Amino acid sequence: MNREDFLIKVVSPLAFTLALFILWQLICKGFSVPMTILPAPSDIFAALWKYRVPIIDNSWVTLWTTLAGFLLATIFGLLLGIAVGWHKTIYAAIYPVLVGFNLKFPLQKAEFLPSSSRK
Fold it and tell me: What is the 8-class DSSP label of residue 105?
C-alpha cells in the first residue's frame, strides 16, 4: 500500500471519526445536553470502562446464545431442505407455507451479494 492509498483508506476515515467524536463532545458539553437525551462520548467511554466486567460476561452469553440459535436454525433448515427436495408430498405440503413466509418477510437480492462486489 503506497502512501496515497494509506492516506485515503486509513487516515481519512480515522480523521473523520475523530472529528465526529470531538464535535459530538463539544455539542454535548457546550449546550449542556442532558445525559438521558444524548450522553457525550467521554461519558459513554467512562461507563463502558466502569461496567466492562458485566459487559464482557453478558457478551459471552449473547455470543453463545446467538451461535446456538444459528446452529439449530442451520440444522433445521438443512433437514427441512433435504425433506422438501426428497419427497413430493412434503414439498406439496410445505411449499405454500414457504411462499407465505417469502411474501411476509421478503429479502432483497442485494442482501445476498457479497460486499466485495460493491465498490
Answer: S
